[in-house]
Design brief:
The protein is of the alpha+beta class and 250 residues long. Helices cover 32% and strands 18% of the residues. The protein contains 9 helices and 11 strands. It has helices at 9-12, 39-42, 87-90, 131-159, 183-187, 191-196, 200-210, 215-226, 232-237, and strands at residues 4-6, 16-17, 31-33, 47-53, 56-62, 94-98, 105-110, 114-115, 120-121, 163-165, 178-181. It has a 5-stranded antiparallel sheet with strand order 3-5-4-11-10. A 3-stranded antiparallel sheet has the order 1-7-6. A 3-stranded antiparallel sheet has the order 8-2-9, with no helix packed on it. A hairpin with a 6-residue loop joins strand 6 and strand 7. 33% of the residues are buried.
Length: 250
């Protein structure tokens, strides 16, 4: 069975789903996709970089200092230890995907959260998505739109030659395959080249560079996770009280 199931009124009218209770499902992820629309929040919380997949570059937040490490969740109960949760995670267990051989976008739910009984309904008595699910659809739909905008911006930066491999032995964590903005290359761009980067590409470039100031925070989180247990004072230090479906796409 695929991890993601495309919702259908015909097939799933009577089925239900279990809402996300925590962020334990992110435990083995050392990076999280970041959108241009959430740069303002993300650059105060995360060190950011770029990952290249299938010749395309994607903006990500570093969640750990090594592969499969994640220092932003409580190791016992999966609570998020921070003031901002990446939008990519807040949409879970829902996502949107492009239908094969079509530009149509469809709503999906993670298979682990699809239920025969219990949980919350997916559809109402009229066969329409419930209000809660519709809000989730709106949210993940906006995320998908902003993801395309962000990925295009990252590709534009790469085409201008200002992204360079971020070696694990440098100031970054030991995660292979990362890239970062080369400030010297950015400063060498001509006025015409800089004009081509105006808007989202330049915001992404500077956002990634400014986020480097969060290395101390990442190191602090790694040290806390290395201890046996997490104290209540740590919970308060990284308390999350913004678990909603709102973020700035501006």
């Amino acid at each position: 069975m695929s991890n993601w199931v495309t919702l259908s009124r015909q097939q799933h009218a009577s089925m239900r789903y279990s809402p996300r209770q925590n962020y334990r499902f992110t435990a083995d992820q050392a990076v999280a996709p970041i959108l241009a629309g959430e740069l303002r929040q993300a650059l105060t919380q995360f060190v950011m970089g770029f990952i290249k997949r299938e010749e395309r570059y994607h903006l990500v937040a570093l969640l750990g200092r090594a592969a499969h490490s994640h220092h932003y969740i409580h190791p016992e109960d999966g609570r998020w230890l921070g003031t901002y949760v990446p939008a990519h995670f807040r949409g879970y267990p829902f996502a949107v995907a492009r239908r094969q051989d079509s530009d149509e976008m469809v709503l999906q739910v993670h298979a682990d959260h699809l239920l025969q009984q219990g949980g919350e309904p997916l559809f109402d008595e009229q066969g329409e998505l419930t209000e809660t699910v519709r809000r989730q659809l709106d949210f993940v739909g906006e995320c998908a739109k902003n993801r395309r905008l962000t990925d295009t911006a990252c590709q534009t930066l790469a085409e201008q030659g200002i992204l360079k491999p971020w070696q694990a032995t440098e100031d970054g964590p030991g995660i292979k395959g990362l890239y970062k903005v080369e400030e010297e290359a950015l400063n060498r761009l001509t006025a015409q080249q800089l004009h081509q980067l105006q808007g989202v590409p330049l915001a992404v470039a500077y956002g990634q560079m400014f986020s480097m100031a969060q290395h101390d925070q990442l190191a602090q989180r790694a040290a806390l996770h290395a201890k046996i247990g997490v104290t209540e004072s740590v919970d308060e230090l990284f308390a999350d009280d913004s678990d909603d479906l709102q973020f700035d796409f501006g």
